[in-house]
Amino acid sequence: MTASPTSATTGSITATGPFHAGEIEAQQRAGGGAAGGAIRSAMPEPHRRFFAALPFVVVATCDDGWPVATLWTGAPGFVAAPDPRTLRIAVALDPGDPASRGFLAGAPLGLLGIELATRRRNRANGAIASVDHHGLTVAIHQSFGNCPQYIRPRELASAPLHPAATEQLAGLDRAAAAAIAAADTFFVATAARTAEPTGGVDVSHRGGPPGFVAVAGDTLTIPDFAGNRYFNTLGNLVTEPRAALVFVDFARGDLLHLQGAAEILWSGPEAGALDGAERLWRVHVERGWRRRGVFALREQSAGDAVAAGRRG
User: How far, CA to CA in Å, does 86 sit from each of 36, 99, 140?
Assistant: First the structure.
């Protein structure tokens, strides 16, 4: 059955705990969710240290009602947590980044910290308290960890930037479709009920074997594997079907940003077609941007890592 992400039943569900009504509806449709006890209103000390050690983070907000997402890089320490309810991100917003104009004081913000080499990841959601020429200050509303499933281990190293002009796409051209078909990783941002205490913007990792995202024209079909059963992403999509996706070429440093409307296939023969998938969701791409050479980290081969170790 294909369920509309804008189901009217959402309004009749009472939110409890850390989840809004859309997340609870998604949990019910999926046969049950988690209690969410690991979702905290402040960052524990291990999470604060984790973010401070990262060379990149995935961030998301809203722009003109649409979720937008991007990746920011910096020397470890460019993200700092001076206290359990505050993150400071030292970043200069890139005017060529289609997400940049959404990062304004008062806007909701979702953040994912992910250490690919160790497959560790933590998430934080909140609101932008202030923006200045040094970066952003974020007030944290939710902080929680995620399991390491479906994360491909990667060793990343700093690389010189050779950015090209941003290319705007009306849909998926041949290069974009090929990049998606080869990908084993992408990031997805969704937003719902941003004016409510349990709502906001969420950004999450999705991974699988290369080609796990199927491409047909401008439509992407994505398997939803077993996870923590919070259903933050699908719960947002139940309420608000718009989504933003970012695919990273870790060899070239290219970012592919996409926006489109999503629908969820909760059950049926298609949902079980890919081994391990519990359901599917589809994104009908409406627009995109390709930014070549803008990600300041590159994947190292085994030989590169050994050589770097010898030089160190």
Answer: 21, 22, 6
